[in-house]
Structures are given as structure tokens and as C-alpha cells.
């Protein structure tokens, strides 16, 4: 039996389409260099955590990861730059709990849409949030701080990494549930806030424990509590918020990587695979453990669901504080 001319044309067309599809798919590959936009200053958990991963990838086959710090605007500076970047894998960015979940409720006119403007790649680390005070402050527990604040003649000041960041929300939430008079002092990242805490120019600061570790170990600050369900084996002397009567403050914050919306799935999946491989490395895990971080790796779809779920979770926290940023 012979093929008709029409049949031959259909087969040839199908073969041509398949060839083009395969060629197009194979052409979607990672660039040789990937820029990672970090919305905070160097030294905080977001920056430290992603640099550890980037270094491992750079030393184990690439692509070359270049970290760029773009602080400001409650992460909006970096995320706006990310959302307008070419969706080809050449630019990705750090997206964290506050920027991707809490800011929806903090800003009436948010300049980016966390669920539409980005393609989630993976989370890379989660960190317990710690409550710290200056080393010279005469308090040793959360209850002591509440008593100190109520008896003090003036407002307590609390720092944050940025407007809308974890330190802002938890600082306001802590004041709200304890009926404390406070004033919020935003900084551009954890590093500057920790410096002011050490100097005694702010009274308390909620931030990731890795940002506090060195200052805690040398006695410059006191860490009153970890916002986690159980104590961290690496720091067994630090009690949890739940142990001190504040279980609602047991909140772990995550940091992840996102690409601009429209980035091909093959590129997103390849980036996820490179980061996941780094996170499986004992070398990376040891570096995270040394600074008090926990590996937190998710697939793109699971990461997208995490953003949706946490957006709902942060609604009640933001509403309870009455915080609004525009």
C-alpha cells in the first residue's frame, strides 16, 4: 500500500514540527552567567544563605552565579528589577516570606504581584526568628522585656531589616499582644540594625538567628528567645517563644529564589536542580549548620503553594497589628 500525497505531506509536516520543537527545547538552556538580586544588604540570612549556594554551584560546574545586593523599598527595588528582566534565566532573585506573603496585606498599591510576576524556583533555607536586646539591657527573658517596657517612662524602640520585613511585623505584633508603647526604626538590612542594637540605640530586634550569632556569642547582645517550635540543638541555652508563653510567635521564615514570570519551565527546572544539588552537599549543609540555618528545599510547584498558603497566614498577623505601609 502506498501513501497518498496528502498522507506524505501530513507525515512530513509532523516530522518537521517535531524537529523544530526539539530544536527549540534544546535551545532553552541556562546562560553561562546568572545574576542573583538580593533585596537586602550583605550579612543577613538571605544574603549569607544564597552566597553559600552560589559558591558551591560556581565550584561545581556552574553556571557562574553573581550575587548583587539591591536593598530598599521593602524588597520592591530588587523584585521590580527582577520582574522586568528577560525571562531567560540570566537574572533571578531572592524572594522571602515577608516580600512574597506579608506585603500583600501591608501595601494597598504593591508594585509587584507575588503570585503573577514571578516563577518560583525553590526555597533554599529557613531560619528561626530570634528576639534580641542589647547586652547591657537588664532583662533576661521575654517577660522581663515586657515588664521593662511597661515600667519605662518612654517608648521602646524596635528595629527591622526594612519596612514590612519580619522584624517590622513581629516587632509590632509583640508590642500589640503585650500592650507596649513602641516606635519602629527601619534599616536597610539586618547588619545595620544589629550594629545599632549592640550600641544600645534600639531596644529590641526580631531577626534571623544567623544575623545575631556572632554578636550573641561574644556577649554584645542577648538573645531572649527563638521563634521556633523546639530549641535549636546548636544553641540549647536559648529558650523558645512557646516556652515563655508566646506560642503564637513560633514562626520560621524562608528564603527562596524566583525567576521572572514567563521563564520557560525547562530553565526553571534546571535552576531548581542545580540549587537542589547544592543543598544536598554535606559541605553546604555544614556551612548552614554553622551559622544556624536549616536547609529548606522545595520543588517549583510546592514553592508556589507555600507562597499562597503563607499569604493567607500573614493576613491575620498584619491585621492584628494594624500595620499599613501606604
Number of helices: 11
Largest sheet: 10 strands, mixed
Low-confidence stretches: 5-26
Tell me the overall shape.
Answer: globular
Helix content: 40-55%
* CATH third-tier fold name of the largest domain: D-Maltodextrin-Binding Protein, domain 2
Radius of gyration: 23 Å
Quote the distance from N terminus to C terminus. Answer: 74 Å
Order of helices and strands: HEHEHEHEHEHEHEHEEHHEH
CATH architecture grouping of the largest domain: 3-Layer(aba) Sandwich
Percent of residues in beta strands? 15-25%
| Quaternary structure type | single chain
Q: How many domains in all?
A: 2
The count of β-strands is 10
Q: Structural class of the secondary structure composition? A: alpha/beta
Average residue-wise pLDDT: 87
What does this structure look like?
It is built from eleven helices and ten strands. It has 326 residues and is of the alpha/beta class. It folds into two domains: 32-125 and 252-317, 3-Layer(aba) Sandwich (D-Maltodextrin-Binding Protein, domain 2); 128-249, 3-Layer(aba) Sandwich (D-Maltodextrin-Binding Protein, domain 2), CATH 3.40.190. Helix 2 (45-59) packs antiparallel against helix 10, helix 4 packs across helix 11 and helix 6 (166-178) runs parallel beside helix 11. The longest helix is centred in the N-terminal third of the chain and has 23 residues, at 5-27. It is globular and about 65 Å long. The termini are far apart. Mean pLDDT is 87; it is low at 5-26.
Amino acid at each position: 500500500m502506498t501513501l497518498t500525497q496528502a498522507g506524505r505531506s501530513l507525515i512530513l509536516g509532523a516530522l518537521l514540527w517535531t524537529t523544530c520543537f526539539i530544536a527549540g527545547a534544546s535551545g532553552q538552556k541556562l546562560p553561562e552567567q546568572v545574576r542573583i538580586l538580593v533585596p537586602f544588604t550583605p550579612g543577613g540570612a538571605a544574603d549569607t544563605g544564597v552566597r553559600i549556594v552560589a559558591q558551591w554551584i560556581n565550584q561545581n560546574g556552574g553556571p557562574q552565579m553573581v550575587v548583587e545586593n539591591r536593598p530598599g523599598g521593602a524588597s520592591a527595588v530588587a523584585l521590580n528589577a527582577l520582574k522586568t528582566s528577560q525571562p531567560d534565566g540570566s537574572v533571578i532573585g531572592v524572594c522571602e516570606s515577608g516580600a512574597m506573603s506579608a506585603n500583600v496585606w501591608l501595601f494597598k498599591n504593591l508594585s509587584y504581584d507575588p503570585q503573577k510576576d514571578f516563577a518560583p524556583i525553590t526555597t533554599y533555607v529557613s531560619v528561626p526568628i530570634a528576639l534580641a536586646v542589647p547586652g547591657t539591657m537588664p532583662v533576661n527573658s521575654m517577660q522581663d522585656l515586657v515588664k521593662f517596657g511597661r515600667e519605662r517612662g518612654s517608648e521602646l524602640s524596635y528595629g527591622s531589616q526594612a519596612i514590612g520585613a519580619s522584624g517590622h511585623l513581629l516587632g509590632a505584633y509583640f508590642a500589640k499582644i503585650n500592650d507596649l508603647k513602641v516606635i519602629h526604626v527601619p534599616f536597610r538590612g539586618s547588619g545595620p540594625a544589629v550594629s545599632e542594637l549592640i550600641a544600645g540605640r534600639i531596644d529590641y530586634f526580631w531577626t534571623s538567628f544567623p544575623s545575631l550569632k556572632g554578636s550573641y556569642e561574644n556577649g554584645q547582645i542577648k538573645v531572649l528567645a527563638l521563634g521556633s517550635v523546639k530549641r535549636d540543638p546548636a544553641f540549647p541555652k536559648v529558650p523558645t517563644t512557646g516556652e515563655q508563653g508566646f506560642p503564637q510567635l513560633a514562626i520560621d521564615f524562608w528564603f527562596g529564589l524566583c525567576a521572572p514570570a514567563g521563564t520557560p519551565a525547562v530553565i526553571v527546572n534546571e535552576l531548581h536542580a542545580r540549587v537542589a544539588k547544592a543543598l544536598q552537599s554535606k559541605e553546604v549543609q555544614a556551612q548552614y549548620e554553622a551559622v544556624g540555618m536549616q536547609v529548606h528545599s522545595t520543588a517549583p510547584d510546592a514553592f508556589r503553594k507555600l507562597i499562597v498558603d503563607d499569604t493567607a497566614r500573614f493576613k491575620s498577623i498584619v491585621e492584628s497589628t494594624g500595620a499599613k505601609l501606604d
